């Protein structure tokens, strides 16, 4: 192993930085894949509110946002040679010489990410994500939930239900046995009642014929194995590689 690494002229600091960056990127994604695999193997559908669903996705991508953002900021700051060579001393010197421009870029990047996340969270407050469910079952559940909410004679237009104004619509993702329901009513009380009855009705629905579950389990297992390998390589470099 050591001879192979030396053949590629890789220093211990470079290798540790690469392992750490890979772990920061891959570990959150692996946890997310493990969660997806578990919900897609349950005996009934799983309902997650839209903002929590987005928080989970954002947490899974957090490593890429941090590491990718750091690389992007370094390139923008015209220190691309340091990135390509892995020379972090040059980055440190660049920080000391151009602290003002670095701070401007860093703050601007994080404000952009936070603003985009906040805007998406606001737009998803009326969404529900339903995992491990068949589209036909969701359509039946919606009809029953509207009746229990005393919304009678609702008309369906494709994947939208309306009674005058729009009530709700759904966006199916058949390949993942996943459906997104968007509550369109302007009344918060009506939306809360429909959501409550939807959740109650879904408790009576069985699992979908979900082909994605085994694939997600395989991806999660591969992610766990890869993370263990990266941790092992980091320990080897830290204690044995010179």
Lay out the secondary structure:
Elements: H1 2-7, H2 12-39, E1 46-49, H3 50-60, H4 62-76, H5 80-85, H6 88-97, H7 99-123, E2 127-131, H8 135-148, E3 155-157, E4 160-162, E5 166-173, E6 178-183, H9 188-202, H10 212-239
Would you write up a description of this structure?
The structure is a single chain. The protein has 242 residues and is of the alpha+beta class. The protein has two domains: 2-43 and 51-123 and 215-239, no CATH class; 127-202, TATA-Binding Protein, CATH 3.30.310. The protein has ten helices and six strands, in the order ααβαααααβαββββαα. It has a six-stranded antiparallel β-sheet. β5 (166-173) and β6 (178-183) form a beta hairpin. α2 (12-39) runs antiparallel to α3 (50-60) and α2 runs antiparallel to α4 (62-76). The longest helix has 28 residues, at 12-39. It starts with a helix and ends with a helix.
What key attributes describe this structure?
flat; 242 residues; TATA-Binding Protein
Averaged pLDDT: 82
- Total number of β-strand segments? 6
Report the order of strands and helices.
Answer: HHEHHHHHEHEEEEHH
Number of helical regions: 10
**Spatial order of strands in the largest sheet:** 1-2-6-5-4-3
The portion of residues assigned to helices is 55-70%
Number of structural units classed as domains: 2
Radius of gyration: 24 Å
Distance between the termini: 12 Å
**pLDDT < 50 runs, ≥5 residues:** 79-87
- Largest β sheet strand count, sense and barrel closure: 6 strands, antiparallel
SS content category: alpha+beta
Beta-strand percent range: 5-15%
Principal-axis shape equals flat
């Amino acid at each position: 192993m050591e001879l192979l690494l030396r053949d590629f002229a890789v220093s211990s600091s470079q290798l540790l930085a690469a392992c750490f960056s890979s772990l920061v990127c891959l570990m959150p994604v692996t946890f997310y894949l493990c969660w997806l695999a578990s919900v897609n193997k349950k005996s009934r559908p799983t309902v997650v509110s839209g903002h929590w669903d987005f928080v989970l996705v954002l947490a899974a991508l957090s490593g890429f946002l941090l590491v990718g953002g750091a690389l992007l900021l370094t390139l923008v700051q015209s220190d691309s040679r340091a990135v390509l060579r892995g020379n972090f001393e040059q980055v440190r010197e660049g920080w000391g010489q151009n602290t003002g421009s670095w701070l401007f870029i860093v703050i601007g990047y994080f404000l952009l990410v936070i603003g985009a996340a906040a805007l998406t969270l606001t737009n998803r407050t009326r969404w529900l994500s339903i995992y491990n469910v068949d589209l036909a079952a969701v359509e039946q559940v919606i009809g029953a939930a509207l009746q229990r909410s005393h919304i009678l004679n609702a008309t369906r237009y494709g994947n939208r239900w309306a009674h005058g104004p729009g009530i709700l619509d759904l966006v199916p993702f058949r390949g993942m046995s996943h459906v997104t329901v968007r509550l369109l009513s302007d009344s918060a009380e009506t939306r809360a009642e429909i959501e409550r009855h939807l959740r109650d009705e879904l408790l009576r629905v069985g699992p979908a014929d979900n082909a994605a579950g085994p694939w997600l389990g395989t991806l999660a297992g591969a992610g766990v194995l890869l993370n263990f390998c990266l941790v092992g390589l980091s320990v080897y470099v830290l204690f044995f590689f010179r």
